[in-house]
Amino acid sequence: MNKKIYLLVLIFSISITAQQAPASKQSKSILILNGTAHLGNGKVIENSAIGFKDGKLTLVADATTIRLQNGAYDITIDAKGKQVYPGFIAPNSTLGLVEIDAVKSSDDESEIGNMNPHVRSLIAYNAESKVIETVRPNGILIAQITPRGGRISGTSSVVQLDAWNWQDAVMKENDGIHLNFPVTFNQSGWWAEPGGITLNKDYAKQVDEIKTFLSDSKAYLGAASKDRNLIFESVKGLFDGSQTLFIHADNELQIVDAINLAKSNGVNKIVIVGGFEAYKVADILKENNVGVLLRRVHDMPEYDDQDVNLPYKMAKILTDKGIIVGLENSGAMERMNTRNLPFLAGTCAAYGLDKEQALQLITSNTAKLLGIDNLCGTLEEGKDATLFISEGDALDMRTNLIYNAFIQGRKLNLETHQTKLNAIYKEKYNQK
Prior knowledge:
- GO terms for molecular function: hydrolase activity, acting on carbon-nitrogen (but not peptide) bonds.
- Keywords: Signal.
- This is Amidohydrolase family protein.
- Helices cover about 30% and strands about 25% of the residues.
- By secondary structure, it is an alpha/beta fold.
- The protein folds into two domains: about 20-85 and about 380-415, Roll (Urease, subunit C, domain 1), CATH 2.30.40.10; about 90-375, TIM Barrel.
- The strands form four sheets. Strands 8-9-10-11-14-15-16-17 form an eight-stranded mixed sheet, sandwiched between helices. The protein has a six-stranded mixed sheet with strand order 3-2-7-18-19-20, with no helix packed on it.
- Helix 9 packs across helix 11.
- The protein is globular.
- The chain starts with a helix and ends with a helix.
């Protein structure tokens, strides 16, 4: 191809796929009136008044019980007949770490090595990812960006999904370290034709390696050393309580061993990620104040003798046991499927939880487990004005239709690459 033509094609390609400009900082105060506000803490205000200024919520009240002065807010949005929600939170996500799986240079979700607590996902986060803009129209406005691979994958951070770069996006830096606990057995085959199950003969050895790493780190941090060890230093937050240990484990034995191992080494802030068999050890979870980020509930049971609807019921079972439960969406095409997070919560509502409890799975509960509940997760005065207005029930794919969304008070552009293409081809074929 002629170099000039190639350059023009490249420039054109960049221009049509460029990132949307993030919204400007909130300059005018906004009042949302008459909508049904789902606060994210189990409460609902049928006729609400939600006000925010300078990126923070300044008013959350029943509109029928208050009196506002004329001009108290610069802009008023009438949300009569609409639903108002806090922004949804996607934990254990690789949004912004991979753009195209088949393009190696756009894949930055893992590092070589086995013990990588010092690897920080935040600095690899690409705020300009085209995938990010596709999740916001379903209400996902916050995500925990989490590395993959190895025994200890690295350190995650929490970001808001409307920014020029990771420095602008970060809400909580280095919130936790992610440990992939050894599996107790291995299964051959694949999902459509599963093979046999064999015990992991190296399980005890692999658990001992984690135990040794934690004890060595603790010893290093507790004594002066001439030689610096950045890997050991990076886990300091696990021992002083400033970071959470996110343990990725599904099996009953894995979960019990992981909790005992962490506790015996002085790690007290623990969250189980995945937790397929967490319901079997709910009492241990409750006793140790351990929450669970349930893996994608749109799934099948692991064993032939399990209830076919078990994945859908897990959130209800654990909630009834007093466990703080959130939802994560790891698995096949995790980034693309992040947009479906609200509908996972909707399924949990269809199988036992009431709608407000299901909403908490992706708002206040997840905020608590990530340690950001002082900033978001509920509609409360003083918290970030990260919220959206939906035409209907945001947990139902038939009525989840968002027409206004705000992150820290900034009004978002909800256009995506797909909506632009939709408009183009509607015009081409003269459709309304």
